[in-house]
Each structure stands twice: as C-alpha cells, then as structure tokens.
Structure to design on (756 residues):
C-alpha cells in the first residue's frame, strides 16, 4: 500500500490481522498521535484490507503536519480538502477598508493612487457589479480624508502607498454619497428621496468637519432644496481655503432602474423634459451634476471620483457633464477592480494546506469564475471579487470545492432592470438571438488557448459613449449598443489581446464579445433568454387552451401553458410551493375566461366530516370535466435509483435537481412516439417517489403514484356523475419537481342506475 494511503473495507479473511488492531478502535479513525503510529505499523505488514465499523468502503488520507484524517473521493463535489486552522473570516460583502485591509484576503490596490492623481481631477470608473468598486471608494475616502491624518501609518503603513505617500494624502474634506438606494417608483418619490439623500449628506458633512472648519457650522440650509444647501456649504468651505473631494458611488443605479420602463414619466423627467405627473424642466439628478461641474471651476470642489456600471446615465442625464475622464478602458487600470489569477491563487493558499489542492481549486475556479477582460490591449483576465469570496467561504466552512448549484451566488446576478431594458428593445432581443445562433451561449468555456475563439464579432469599438437613444430606439448602432450594454452589466465580456489576434479581429474597428464564464452564463444569460421566451408568451394560445379543456376536455395545451408558468419559478419562489400553488396556475386562466361561472374549486362530492372534494370541476348541462391535481416535490423524488435531495437543502441545489428531473423527462418523451400515452412514458422513466407506510419509508416507481391518482380521479368522477346525472371525464395533472407537468385522462364515466 502507498505510505500515505490505506483502505478501510468490510471484507476480512484472516484473524491474524484482527490481532494487530488495537481493541479500542471503534467508530472512527482516532486523531491522537499514538493511534496514528499504531496504524502506521499495521499498514505495511497487512496485505489484507482492514475493517473498522461505520467507515467501510471509504478511502482515508493522512496529511503530514495536520491532526485530521480526510476521506478521499473520486468525485470532485465529494472530495474533502485539508483546511488550515484558525482561518480568519472571509470579507464577503465587506466594504470597510480599515477592517478589510488587515485581512489576509485583501489584495493591495493602493499602488494605483498616484496613477489616479496624475490621470485627472474628475474621473469615472465603470465596472460590473461586485468587483470591489465600493471598497475602492472607501480606500480613497480613508486616504484623502483630513480627519484620518493621524491614523495614516496605522491604516496604510503596511501597504504599497505607505512607502510612497503622495502630497495630496489627507488634504481634503470628503463629501461621499451613494445613489443606490433612491426610490424610482414615481417622479415625486425619486425627487424626494434624492433630495433627502443629498440633504442628509450635507448635514453629516457639517457635523463631521465643523471642528476642523468652524465656518461651515453657519451654512444656510434651504428646506426642500438640498442642491442649494450643498452650494452654500461649498461656498463656506471655499472661504476657509479648504478643498473638497467628492466621491459618488453607484451613480447610475437609480437611472438604470428608471430605464427599465421606457414609457415612465421618470425616464422623461431625468432627461429634463416635461412629464405628465410633474411639469418640471430639469431634474434634480441633472442639477446635481451641473452644480458639481460649476463648483470645479474656481469653487471648493477640486477632485471628483465617480463609480458605476454603465455610461448611459453619464451621457444622457447629467446635462453635459463632459469634464470627466473615463478610466474603464485604460490599460493602466485594467486590474484596478477584481482579482487576477495570481491573486486568486494566493487567496486559496490562505485557506488550503497543500499546493496540489490549491492548483486543483484554481483550475476549478478558472473554468467557472474567470474570463473578464476590460481592455483589448492586454491579456489580463479578471475574477469577480464576490464570487471568489463565495467559493473561499464555502471551502472554509465545508472543506470542499463548491460544485453545481453551490457555485452560484445570486447576489452577483445583474439587477432585474438590466433584463427589462434588454427585453424591451428589438435590438436587445436580436443580440441575444445572435449569441445563441453563434453558439456562444452553448459553448463550453475552455481553460486552454486554442486556435478558434468562441465569440461574436460585432462591428464597433467599445468605449464610454453608450447612450439610451441607440439602445432603446432603432438606429444603426442599436445592435452594437445592446451588446455593449450587456458588456457593462457583466453578462458578456470582450476577448483579450491574444484572442483578438487568433480571431483576426482588429479591436480598433470591431469587438469580439464572449461569455466570460460558466457562472455568468448560468446566472444571467440563461435568465435573460428565459425572460425573452416568457415575454413572447402567446396569450391567445392560453385562451384557446382554456376553451379546449372546458368544452372538449382536452387538457394538453393548458398543461403546457402551466408548465411554461412553472418555468418562471426561482429558488425563493420554491420555498412556498405546494399543491395549492400548483392549483392556482390552473385557476387563474380559468377564472379569467368566459367559463369562469361554470367551474368550481374544491367541489364537494359527498357530505359529512370527511367529505370528498375534487380539485377542479367544469360543468356543462350535458357533460362535465374534473381534474385531480398532484404535486410531487423534489424532496420526495429519486432519480436513477440514487440521486435525490433533501427537502431542506439549499434552494440552488433543489433548483438544479428539479432541472435534472425535467431534462430526464424530456429525454424520455423524445425517445418515445409523439402519441405515446403517459403510462408508457412513466414506465420507462427512472423516477421514484418516497412512499410512507406508517413509520416505514420506501421508494416506489412514480407509475404507482400516477395509478393511485387516476383511481382517485375516477372515483370522484363517478360520484359527480351519480350526483348530477350526467357523464364526467376524469383527468389527472401531476407536477413533478416544480418544472415538469404531466397529464392524462383517467377515465370517462356515466351515472349509475338507481339499483346499482
């Protein structure tokens, strides 16, 4: 046997081996050094497998230098990794620079501060969500704030800028504002929330610096006009010979949300035109940036640093705020936000013990998280910070790599408004279709360089001139603008320099758009394509499906529409799914149709305490149709006799299992004839249902559950036929694992004679 590995198995054929095993070894492998020494003496001499209770059929690895034994599995999602002891907390979602910079998970970016100072006084930096922009804002806040002068060595002494301090360090009064929490429901609410946000920051600024600059304590606050109050504050600061640095975080968040509804008054209001709900000529959003622009010309504001996602708001809604220099495409700042691969490897080394495991984890993360390119002139690929922290947190807690649904972090999903904007425009839908046609969505992300590069080449050069006119309305640039919008939102990226060369594309005239990684494809592009399909739902078909069921007893189209609605469910929606919610998907279209007065919900078929009730019933003078509904959730399903999931598992895992069930059912239907009865399909599928008989639990083929539901439906139909003296058709509709709806006719019954 290998000196680093020994097998624990049940089979044992020699009592001589038993005599070598200490009698105290019982339930698990001991952790003490003495037992390790005992086992190290046993293993070289024992050619037969050893046997220990409760750990049969597992492989165990002993890593020198650690105090634990770790089971080794052949599958990646079960492989346990040796984790270092006393690992500090992963700074997931933490944007407080003072606390994060002391963490071993912090990657120094202070070396860019001198470059930022030399690049201009008004700068705009755009990156997708969760790349560390807010932490960058807080870094600049702590570096330039005059009130942190005494703590400079403590905060920055161990960093790159600590040895290369610039002349502007701790020289400014910092006015910092965040526009991500503004209310965009209506024009009035938006104006009120933005006014309140600016007014609150003005008050906070006065309270913070009034001891350092006594003059600002006498600033005139204009009620209901925060912009005027801000101007008065800047005038007081100018009189004191001090300078202000303005930091604006998420400047475009509210504007992009307003764009999701192109017909809204708010979108017109932001542009500065009159709206139906508020007759105003200029928005507070435009006024704020106009004021900033004027205050940089001889006023108190000397430097401005703005972060966001998209340049649309800057170009369309800031009243010609053309004094800013964009850094997003500058090669010098390609690595300012996000993690490089070398940095990810260093972060993995903080958690994992051995170099081999670090390389294994890095290869895994490279495929699923890597791929963002922010400059066509370099070969730098960047990782989203929060995705990396999500994986590190998972490894720290569970000692294994995240796989499947656990790789996904829903917090990284681009906002809902991005999908709404793309689906609201013909150019957006066309761009997604092009990505599909070119197999960019279907292609696997290769971890190795190849001669062929999977991507979509579009004429046009990425820059920061994107505007809403080209995106929302038909223009020659609409197709490229839609892809550029996806690029800024983080749904697609551009190729690196070597990929442009391999694809023979000139980045000065054309752009190579790519899917950055598997997680983005799963989180955003699949959702975008899914929403696009939902937006094309034919409601005429839904009305026709209701008529087909009500009049002719054909449930096929109605079940297909119901399955289409089930596909809209996400993880949080599944938490409250039940047979009642499944029934609602049938009730709503029936209640909205002209047959609403002819159907009954929970129709009583007998009297007494335990009265029989049928889920849905539609009655006509000469005949009736009733439906028995069944909902089999993932927690009660098993696939291929081994794959199942607990009902209390993470919703991402449940969602993935439900998709596996749906794919399996589609595969079965494709293998059979189009008119094959549902019983034939159930006979061939590899699904089993958890069945309870008292305290005993067993797995039975799903065909048995279907037959049980059919018998119950026929019984209900017979009761209804006897009671109303007309024939009834019994139907069964069963939802399997959230996304799969099957149906069939259980039987047609006539009323029995009185003697019967």
């Amino acid at each position: 046997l290998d000196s680093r590995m020994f097998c624990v198995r049940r089979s044992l054929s020699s009592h001589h081996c038993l005599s070598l095993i200490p009698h105290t070894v019982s339930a698990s492998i001991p952790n003490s050094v003495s037992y390790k020494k005992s086992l190290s003496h046993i293993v070289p001499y024992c050619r037969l497998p050893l046997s220990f209770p409760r750990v049969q059929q597992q492989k165990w690895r002993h890593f020198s230098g650690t105090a634990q034994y770790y089971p080794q599995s052949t599958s990646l999602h079960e492989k346990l990794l040796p984790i270092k002891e006393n690992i500090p907390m992963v700074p997931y979602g933490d944007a407080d620079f003072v606390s994060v910079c002391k963490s071993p998970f912090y990657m120094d970016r202070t070396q860019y501060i001198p470059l930022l100072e030399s690049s201009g006084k008004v700068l705009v930096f755009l990156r997708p969500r969760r790349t560390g922009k807010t932490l960058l804002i807080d870094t600049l806040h702590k570096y330039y704030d005059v009130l942190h002068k005494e703590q400079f060595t403590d905060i920055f002494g161990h960093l790159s800028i600590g040895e290369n301090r610039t002349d502007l360090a701790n020289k400014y009064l910092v006015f910092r504002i965040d526009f991500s929490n503004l209310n965009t429901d209506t024009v009035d609410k938006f104006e009120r929330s933005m006014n309140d946000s600016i007014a609150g920051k003005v008050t906070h600024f006065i309270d913070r610096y009034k001891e350092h600059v006594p003059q600002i304590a006498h600033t005139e606050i204009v009620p209901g006009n925060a912009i005027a109050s801000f101007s008065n504050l800047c005038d007081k600061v100018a009189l004191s010979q001090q300078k202000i640095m303005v930091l604006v975080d998420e400047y475009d968040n509210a504007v992009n949300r307003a764009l999701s509804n192109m017909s809204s008054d708010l979108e017109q209001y932001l542009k500065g035109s009159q709206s139906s709900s508020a007759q105003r000529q200029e928005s507070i959003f435009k006024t704020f940036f106009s004021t900033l622009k004027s205050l940089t010309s001889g006023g108190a504001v000397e430097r401005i640093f703005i972060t966001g996602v998209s340049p649309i708001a800057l170009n369309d809604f800031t009243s010609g705020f053309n004094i800013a220099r964009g850094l997003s495409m500058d090669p010098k700042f390609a690595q300012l936000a996000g993690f490089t691969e070398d940095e990810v490897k260093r972060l993995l080394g903080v958690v994992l013990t051995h170099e081999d495991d670090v390389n294994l984890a890095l290869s895994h993360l490279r495929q699923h998280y890597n791929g963002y390119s922010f400059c066509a002139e370099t070969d730098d690929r960047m990782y989203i910070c929060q995705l990396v922290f999500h994986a590190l947190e998972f490894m720290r807690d569970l000692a294994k790599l995240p796989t499947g649904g656990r790789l996904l972090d829903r917090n990284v999903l681009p906002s809902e408004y991005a999908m709404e904007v793309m689906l609201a425009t013909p150019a957006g839908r066309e761009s997604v279709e092009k990505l599909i046609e070119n197999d960019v969505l279907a292609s696997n992300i290769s971890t190795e360089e190849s001669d062929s590069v999977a991507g979509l080449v579009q004429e046009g050069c990425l820059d920061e001139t994107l505007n809403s006119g080209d995106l929302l309305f038909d223009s020659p640039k609409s197709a490229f603008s839609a892809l550029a919008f996806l690029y800024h939102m983080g749904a697609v990226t551009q190729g690196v320099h070597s990929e442009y060369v391999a694809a023979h594309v000139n980045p000065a005239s054309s752009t190579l758009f790519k899917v950055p990684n598997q997680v983005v494809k799963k989180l955003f592009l699949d959702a975008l394509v899914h929403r696009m399909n939902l937006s094309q739902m034919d409601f005429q078909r839904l009305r026709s499906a209701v008529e087909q069921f009500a009049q002719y007893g054909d449930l096929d189209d109605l079940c297909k529409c119901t399955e289409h609605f089930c596909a809209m469910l996400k993880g949080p929606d599944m938490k409250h799914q039940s047979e009642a919610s499944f029934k609602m998907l049938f009730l709503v279209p029936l209640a909205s149709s002209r047959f609403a007065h002819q159907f009954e919900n929970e129709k009583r078929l007998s009297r007494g305490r335990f009265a029989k009730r049928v889920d849905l019933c539609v009655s006509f003078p000469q005949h009736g149709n009733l439906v028995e509904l069944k909902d089999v959730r993932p927690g009660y399903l098993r696939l291929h006799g081994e794959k199942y999931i607990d009902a209390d598992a993470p919703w991402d895992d449940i969602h993935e299992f439900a998709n596996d069930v749906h794919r399996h059912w589609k595969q079965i239907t494709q293998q059979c004839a189009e008119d094959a009865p549902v019983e034939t399909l159930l006979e061939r599928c590899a699904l089993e249902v958890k069945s309870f008989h008292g305290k005993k639990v067993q797995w039975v083929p799903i065909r048995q559950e279907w037959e049980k539901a059919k018998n119950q439906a026929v019984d209900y139909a017979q009761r209804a036929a006897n009671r109303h003296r007309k024939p009834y058709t019994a139907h069964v509709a069963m939802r399997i694992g959230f996304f799969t709806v099957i149906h069939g006719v259980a039987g047609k019954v006539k009323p029995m004679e009185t003697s019967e």
About this structure: The first strand starts at residue 5 and ends at 8. Residues 67 and 704 are 50 Å apart (CA to CA). Residues 1-74, 274-280, 443-452 have pLDDT under 50 and may be disordered.
